[in-house]
């Protein structure tokens, strides 16, 4: 089944695919079957739906993070050392070992780990592992040597070198982390290729066939082109460049065409107007409830924002502008108000996250065809923190999905992977429940802002494609559209929210080619 | 007519081209003509030969230079001002006007021109015009203002600000030129697109259908990709990156595939081991005859050269190494000797220019499959200077084309445009005459180093294609090869050398498509 271009449900039980990888016809019960179908399989009660589209992710970061060592599941120093030893053996060609997720409290260690304890697992391969909270790093002796750390190295302002017996002990806190990180080698093109392939594998295995890439750098772009040139690019990437200059350098005087059979296009530019809520970097209209006097900070002056947008919009680039705090959202809305007359033809202004919005500003999202690009799982991850940061009164316009629709904005969903899991079924389920994976809170958090199950599906398919100018190519199945679809083990319109979350993707097809097939057909035979 | 893959002459009088742009068949007298030929024209005695291949050029520089103002033909300040006024009117959207070629001696001015005299032609558009010898530049008032030049600006070491009535007068000599040049804006992507299109137009109009691009930067590469993506890339570019890092960033772990229907490939890396003869930057084994004690300078130590080659060759990149002086050529030959066992499979080592070679080193070019990539017109442009710089004794291995062949090296020809004209017929004629456009010197300069007319043709076609790993795709006409050919107004195997030089290209075809047709069919009706 699929939505059509207008969002109406269409059921089918077969697809005829042309040699160009596009849908020729959706077969319905009673239709004559072609003599030699291009794609045919006994579905045994499985469901075929369009490939999911993530409106906001970070492709290369997902790959790099997935290739790094993950210690978040380790429960003791010994377990961590075993995991490190295994990782070192499996990655023997790496110049440095990197990763993170450790927490000495979880280990019950009562102190930080030491460089010697890391040396025991890594030998002399420089190694740097960041603590679960990102506020400290654990270096081995080789890493400290490479970074030129000696007994006389001083802790910088805002940071601390943990000392053991009068010498740097291996752990570097906050600003001291940079002492090691400056010695980390830049990824090579081979590293980048490997990270891309890993990210693509993850996304396809989760049923994501197309994704916006938010903040494509030159090196990211070069990687996508190498993959495209070599025929390794199998997913679709809607690329938003990391700032204006990158877009101009790559694409010149306007968006690139769709390349590699509609698999890659740089069509827009990502800008940031503020930071995030957790670090109190989001720019608010009034101070943080839990930090009096601090309202966060803007990244750009109004003039800088207008100037950046003008530089790109005059060449036809779309803008996707990060705004988390209510003041940042107001700034972007003001900028769009100011520029929308000049750049009115099909701009599809995007505001990314739009997490905390002053209710007075909510109706402004309905003007100028603004797209609210939001991430359902952020709501369940952040809700406790948001309550602390903002207090109850300022939550009326927070994660306000339904209000966005009610005001006439176009709502599109994504995951913001790798900040959250790229699994779109988690986002889909959160979208109509406002509950987390444990079903908390009961009844949903501010459930009046939940959207319908069908609306959440739209936001992860046809509308996410629209936001990236791809709606005539992918996002739903219909004659002439690219044959991007997934085979899943349950009916997503009937599954309970928790069942929908644990949907298993059995096969993924892009452009009429099977690009993923689950090895052990788990989920077969049903629950 | 064409050479075949082995260099034997093949005559034909028709070409059948497939829908894929490749040659299906060469038709000979008496062959049955197809009922509906793909390409057919009454040639009226014209000649069809394969598109010419330039083994060494600089595509973007050609375009930028062609778009800049050229004052070299002006004979007075007034003529120059008229030319500047015309150029300013035709280029009214440019932020700066740039160009050069002026010479106040030719103008009979008896002094340098002034900023005020330039203002009279340009108004307040910043303008910077370099003197014919490259050793001085002429700025207008707007350019001096943009560069922050005031009455108190000091001349830097090695440079001089020409003063008029106690103020900077507009002319900046040698190191002082940088005071203005630092204010020149970087070309925009639009500027780069325009420069590429101009270069391509020039090359196709001169019958060059494929060219090596020596020293492709990231921005150059992005331009070629934009042109390819938009279907504007019509010539074939064998790209050699500007150093190792650019190749790794662009192509990653090995050469790119041939892209856009065999029109673009980054297959190699350009390195420099010395400068040029004119500025006495070429690295010689013994001091310059006209500058005792000065032997020029190496650009790289032996270790740096070996290290750079290894970094790229281990990933399969080809190397094209600039070496002009005999010491520089020796350094490159030493490096190839050292590395050829490690990187022996199809490396196709290229030495670019190979202008001055110690006769003792000449036989070494026959080893390891080395390609001598030389530019015939450099020989006629440089011969007087080379005699002054080197003295008669050291000319035995200078511009030694025939000796290269005799020693078993592969000889390929190019123009080094825009240093010389990209017209390949000038190079072809020089190749077998060792004479310049005026037929000087009588009998040719060191005529024992001339090659045959057919050999020079090979060097501009099949062998130039071989040097860029394109010999199975272009460089000659045969079934399965890309249909790249030109229609010219005379028979190049029968024309006198001066007639060959003035060959007119009437049409140029690349991949079976006509990409250039001369508007007024000059040359028709014969000379």
From TrEMBL, chains A, B:
All residue ranges annotated as the Amidohydrolase domain in the record: 42-516
Stored Pfam families: Amidohydro_3
InterPro entries: Amidohydro_3, Metal-dep_hydrolase_composite, Metal_Hydrolase, YtcJ-like
GO molecular function, one term: hydrolase activity, acting on carbon-nitrogen (but not peptide) bonds
Keywords, alphabetical: Hydrolase
Source superkingdom: Bacteria
Protein name as catalogued: Amidohydrolase family protein
Species in which this protein is naturally found: Sphingomonas suaedae
